[in-house]
Specification:
Elements: E1 35-40, E2 53-54, H1 58-65, H2 70-81, E3 87-92, E4 100-109, E5 115-121, E6 124-130, H3 136-149, E7 155-160, E8 163-171, E9 180-182, E10 198-200, H4 217-222, E11 230-232, H5 238-248, E12 265-271, H6 274-281, E13 289-294, H7 302-319, H8 344-352, E14 357-360, E15 366-370
Parallel strand pairs: 1-3, 1-11, 11-12, 12-13
Antiparallel strand pairs: 2-3, 4-8, 4-10, 5-6, 5-9, 7-8, 14-15
Helix pairs in contact: 1-2, 2-7
């Protein structure tokens, strides 16, 4: 076979040894399959809505999307699980008319012994020191001050006469996934409520009242033909899942379709009771979307679960696309307490209804037990384990 040269003319007759160097095959082989995190920004972020941008650090995410925003929190979870691979952020606007989620922490009695209130917001530890000389309003003020001092939290707080009102930084239905709890590690971890202190948390252990899901149409259009293989999309309402299934699906216009051939996968997470999750999984049948089921009692928000899931998938599958994701730990994600975790039978049923599942390792960290899409039946409605 003759050698094709890009620069040496084919009609050279002057004798000598002519060499042409092609640098295109030099260097180490690399695979660069991008991740994309999709979520809500707040007004403090300077990024343009519906336009994807590369993010290289948590500081960049905070500046672009606003500290404590849904998308900034997703990047925190992502970087805890994958520091090595390229990731972009796609900020979306708060829905028109959306509401923030709120919840109250109320102090009812003062402590009879000094100690520490081990408060957890969205799974983040917010310690508050109290003494026997503190009054109820002073304790409430201290709690609000501790919350507001941590600008990375997805909430702000205000205290009035012994009650602390906690409000989500962003407005959407996902703000209802922000947990408020005490003493996650319990007495074995050195966490106990100070003796005599009376403190009431939101009845559901979560903020409530958040409404609104973003419209992804413009954001998806603006992605154009840019390749993004691993997408963390934290909304599990039918409209959001449909929009991303169409973008990444197998139709003519989908990224897996014959016209585009860009490929990719969408990762999400859904909190719920066993019954709710079984019913949820039974509704969907996408070959490109994977939804991780998580217990109600996990303190970490579902949008952080989704980001951690996508991060570990990207990191592992770039190394070896045939590698099962089983046993990969989701760092900085807090598991539900032992007595509130799904058991073997429940996990098996959830996996049988199209949901990805997690188990808890010996280090008390969640790890992927089975990754899978929601695809369950073929075009004729028959079970298909493809």
């Amino acid at each position: 076979m003759p050698i094709s040269f890009a620069n040496i003319p084919a009609n050279i007759k002057v004798p000598l040894y002519w060499v042409e160097v092609d640098p295109s095959m030099a260097g180490l082989p690399t695979i660069n399959l991008r991740a994309l995190l999709v979520g809500m920004k707040v007004a403090a972020g300077n990024a343009t809505e519906d336009i994807a941008i590369p993010i290289g650090s948590q500081a960049q995410a905070d500046q672009a999307f606003g500290e404590g925003s849904e998308l900034a929190r997703m990047f925190k979870a992502f970087f805890a699980n994958n520091f090595a691979n390229e990731v972009w952020g796609l900020p979306v606007a708060e829905p028109v008319g959306a509401a923030a989620a709120t919840g109250d922490v109320t102090i009812t009695t003062v402590p009879t012994a000094a100690g520490t209130i081990h408060l957890y917001i969205a799974g983040e530890h917010v310690p508050v020191q109290v003494s026997t000389t503190d009054t109820i309003p002073e304790i409430a003020d201290a709690i609000a001050a501790a919350i507001n001092a941590d600008v990375a939290l997805p909430v702000t707080a205000a205290s009035v006469t012994g009650a602390v009102t906690i409000t989500s930084v962003f407005k959407s239905v996902n703000a209802n996934d922000i947990s408020v709890s005490l003493n996650y590690y319990g007495s074995r971890g050195g966490e106990q409520t100070p003796i005599g202190l009376g403190i009431d948390l939101p009845s559901t252990a979560f903020l409530t009242g958040g409404t609104g899901a973003p419209d992804f149409d413009n954001a998806i259009i603006n992605l154009g033909e840019e390749p993004f293989e691993y997408v963390a999309m934290p909304y599990t309402d039918s409209n959001s899942l449909f929009a991303w299934d169409q973008e990444y699906g197998f139709t003519d216009q989908g990224r897996w379709g014959w016209q585009r051939e860009l490929f990719g996968h969408v990762f999400s997470a859904k909190r719920g009771t066993y019954a709710d999750l079984v019913l949820f999984g039974d509704q969907y049948n996408s070959g490109v979307e994977s939804v991780m089921a998580l217990e109600v009692a996990s303190p970490s928000p579902s949008f952080e679960w989704a980001a951690a899931y996508a991060a570990k998938a990207q990191r592992a599958l770039i190394n070896d696309p045939a590698r099962p994701l089983q046993a990969l730990t989701l760092n900085q994600i807090k598991a539900a307490p032992i007595h509130e975790r799904f058991d073997f039978v429940e996990l098996n049923s959830l996996a049988s209804n199209g949901l990805a599942i997690a188990k808890i390792g010996a280090d008390n960290q969640p790890m992927i037990a089975r990754e899978q899409t929601t695809y369950q039946t073929n075009l004729y409605g028959q079970p298909d384990d493809a």
